[in-house]
Design goal:
The structure is a homotetramer. By secondary structure, chain A is of the alpha/beta class. Chain A has helices spanning 12-21, 42-45, 62-66, 81-90, 107-114, 132-141, 150-165, 194-197, 211-223, 257-267, 321-332, and strands at 2-7, 27-33, 71-74, 94-97, 127-129, 144-146, 173-179, 202-203, 229-235, 242-249, 274-276, 294-301, 306-313. Chain A folds into 2 domains: 2-147 and 320-332, NAD(P)-binding Rossmann-like Domain (Rossmann fold), CATH 3.40.50.720; 151-313, Dihydrodipicolinate Reductase, domain 2. In chain A, helix 1 (12-21) links the parallel strand 1 and strand 2.
């Protein structure tokens, strides 16, 4: 039985990983780490888990912790991850990190957007970007996987097929995306209080959100040119779910939606978690929330010559927790879909 | 492999049963029946199931249908169930019915509250009330199980221990309960539209809700006296979840909360899905939604001499769909908890 | 023009008072006090008021402040009010206080439930409980009015007519009430964050909520006997609104709903803000949110001999802010309904 | 006193107009027309208005109706308006129509997008597009005003200053906009039911929404060139509110946000309802819901050379009902801001 440790376990991403792994009989969550709740049972913080997962939270001491598991998933703030993970790696543990610390190939890009100095740059070259649809083989052999951001997963999966096939320009990519509130984490800030958030919609991080360079890095690698995107995130009054509306300039303005859609179907033909919707259907977050699926629609706006792609996923699912579990399945040699084919609750 | 048919499958209860059963390898959903959507794939109505459960819906023809499964779960309107189930029973099928048709021992009570004439009264004596905590052994051998209502499940489980132990009076029982909107079913009525329902709270069915006599029947059987309850249901602006606040007159006003709580702990000591909360904790719907659990707190109001019980469950879980699956597990000889120990999503 | 000062202005009650008063031409909000936001324009905290009410918040220095207005509404935490108000009163200002500090006639009851020592007990006898339906004439001449709590307003108005007319017993009163989240104030606690609150329903303060003795005080005064109530508050996933479901034992079990309803109609026949609903209608929070109205329905449960009263109001309206404005209108000699006949937004 | 008739009064736009006008003493709502609810008091459909506006709804008979008011606001489905309004105009009434019927200068554009034949094309040239910020003087003298669509109001006001000043290209305009559910009207369709809508986010009308040509018409008139826009609407789980995120190509990529913002400040310097937010602030729907304000932020994305404009309004406010009242104020010679400077409720 694989022993899994979760560090930063009491945040929403950590708790979702617990929810996904707790019922499995091939993985044991052998240690859950949370400085804020050390000494308290996990189910006291998440009462939905009472009687299901009552393990006591431990403090974050890398030395003590690293013996307690074979694999670790770290859900820590950026900057903190880079101080903890080196010790785990040295001790021979495999790590999936959910922060931004190991997502960037160019440390300067990271340092510019995150406004910190990277404390473990030597690990960057060993890290694999944990998007199985692009890097499945590398994930299999990786010792350190950087779990992608939610907006990047949603955006990259929506753009990759068109860019790879050259049916759209690599310039003038406009992404407008929306997240549920859990994307901000388990926070007690006033601006995320119910009264301030409910029934409210807003944009944020206009022209400066940190997921922008992450999207650009991967798109640039796909098409071999430096890609700059216009990315605007928004906050919608819902707990979970993410949807991106992507406007791309068609290379050939006479391309039909069916032709474009077949490019996507082909690109993802072996992917278990990407669903290209039939013509006339559009993605909606409730069809993917609670699951590892991403739903994508492909439409052509003949009047403007644009390809309009909509992609939806769960920011706590394919956008973070379940994608980490997918990577874990790959790294550990399990069936990649193990424990992940369960549908979300719809309601 | 057990073959299960779901009749009335495209309602919310039916869809939740599909969600729970689809990932299992010991049960095959061999037929899904929906007159409204006959000929259309199930995943077209519930896109969360796309690629997971795409079976085509069939029309409701009992003769054709009954050969296609060994067990049936019927999620039909009351009155309709009673016209369909006799044929299934005759053909040797086992049935779990989610309507009110077979929940009452006294057909007159049913007819008075439901304002219809029962068309299959001969089956009533063979039906077992499907609350495993009260009738586990009878369910095991039953050919027809009446899946309890959501309010009755929530109320009866909250009152049974106190009444059975005689620590409260059987008179002056006051139940105030709240349901999420899915309790009304998958409906296109204006009063359940988003704009009319969101951010709104109201009572309904004051002094005349049909779940009242169902609660009274079971409580009367527990204490051996005719019990009359005051029951007021309410609608809260949320999709799923139910919470009951129950005021009971303590027989001995000096009883402490700890003493009362120990009565509950003892009563449910072998129950896998009933969680008696520790002192100081109160149930909340988000801890049970998406699961088969019911959370119960027991408090004493010394000033009024009342026992205050709060019980929470998921109206689409322990209040209907997953409770039906629990009964199915029992009837089919599976482990009763099979597929039901998965925690709900919390968020 | 009357000069009004609002102390504790940036909480939700204060902001609602600003919203109600800002458009009026007979009252000038001459000073807004908020220690947390001193020096910042009010509309920076509440951007809905940008261009409408941009006055800068001031610090809470009673001496400086008291010259700046004729009337003050204080929306401060309990305990704090009692330390500030004496100076305002000494300086000849009239005060409407929204804390619990001056609602109780018996200081011991206050101190027992609020767990503090009252620092200005000498003012208690001069304070008038600010429920116009009960104390209109006393409010008119008062120098210090205690704005009632939201649950007490909702409960007392729902019970007063029946108790005053003697058609129900003063014993065995059971109140189950539900509030929107704004009732907790403008708070950055995790338990009121969107993700923890949305789609969740729970009870809280079981058998120990501080509004209990306030309800009991006023009901006791109405019927001339010591009244003890069972009161259970709940939190619903909505911003505003409150609904109480009240179970009362009918003195004469043969009384009809129509007879009971006529008692209520008669009791409130001259009240501009109490609406007794027609038979068959039940109150809902969306009909009162954003307004000073309270909607009440009266039903009889013949089976249990109980009178079931439902009353709904806006916890930020008749439950606090607009009720304070109603008292201000009375104290200042304005038409009592001035600025308060505007309907809420319904949606 | 001006007599106002509202036709199609029981929809959400009509009800909001009633809410805005009912408290005024310079306008009497002399007749409310609703075929669905003829003979029933308006406050039965909208119980928030009980005791405030109880007038009985009348059937839609243009001949009978037209005598009963001086001005009419029609909130009817497109196509229906064009059959009713001619008679009102003939009888000398002034009309503000909220359908799409009279918004287009070119009847062919209307007929192509709305898929109907216009039955009163002769009135088109007499209709004025009711956006006061663009057509205040024409509205003053108009007999027929076409109340603009919500998305067009939000988009045009967000783009007009930049396009008029020539600081952005008229090509490659990308608008991603989000509406609350009330934008769909008062509907009992399943897809707008609470359970299907709550906690869900989706795009709709991709590349074919009818508000597209309305936006294009007005932008083309502003810049004197034919403008084609990419417009994608979305539905967010909230009752009211609209936000547009607009990406425009800067003519001069070195322009700063401050320079662009000053263009907007100048353009709207005399507008009472347009608020250009200070640098660093972004609009949010809760700041405008319930009001006639539109909040606009102007940012520059230096990396892409784009101007990012965010504009927010209330789809039932400046996007429909209160904008109609603004037009009415202008047409009737009242102060344009009469009854419209009230802030929204924020919560």
């Amino acid at each position: 039985m694989l022993r899994l440790g979760i560090i930063g376990a009491t945040g929403y991403v950590g708790a979702e990983i617990v929810r996904l792994i707790a019922p499995r009989d091939d993985i044991e969550i052998s240690v859950v780490v949370s400085n804020s709740f050390a000494g308290r049972p996990f189910s006291e913080i998440y009462p939905s888990l009472r009687g299901i997962f009552d393990k006591t939270c431990e403090s974050l001491d890398p030395e003590t912790i690293s013996d307690k598991a074979d694999f670790f998933i770290t859900a820590l703030p950026h900057g903190v991850s880079a101080t903890i993970i080196p010790r785990l790696i040295e001790n021979g543990r495999k790590v999936i990190d959910h922060s931004g610390d190991f997502r960037f190939r160019d440390v300067k890009v990271y340092e510019e957007w995150y406004k910190v100095t990277h404390t473990a740059p030597e690990l960057i070259s060993r890290a694999v970007y944990g998007l199985p649809e692009l890097y499945r083989d590398k994930i299999r052999d990786a010792g350190l996987v950087a779990d992608p951001g939610c907006y990047p997963t949603c955006s990259i999966l929506g753009i990759a097929p068109a860019l790879a096939a050259g049916i759209v320009s690599s310039r003038n990519i406009v992404i407008s995306a929306v997240s549920g509130v859990s994307g901000a984490g388990r926070k007690s800030e006033l601006s995320y209080s119910f009264c301030e958030t409910d029934e409210n919609f807003k944009a944020y991080g206009v022209a400066n959100h940190r997921h922008t360079p992450e999207i650009e890095q991967e798109l640039s690698l796909i098409c071999g040119e430096k890609v700059i995107v216009s990315f605007t995130p928004h906050l919608a009054p819902m707990k979970r779910g993410m949807l991106a509306t992507i406007c791309l300039d068609l290379s050939d303005a006479s391309m039909t939606a069916e032709e474009a859609r077949s490019v996507y179907l082909d690109y993802y033909k072996n992917e278990p978690f990407v669903r290209i919707l039939p013509p006339g259907e559009l993605p909606q977050t409730k069809a993917v929330v609670g699951s590892n699926y991403v739903d994508i629609s492909v439409n052509v706006d003949k009047r403007t010559g644009k390809l309009i792609v909509n992609s939806a996923l769960d920011n706590l699912g394919k956008g973070s927790a379940s994608q980490a579990v997918q990577a874990l399945n790959i790294m550990a040699g399990f069936d990649e879909t193990k424990g992940l084919l369960t549908p979300g609750p719809y309601l």
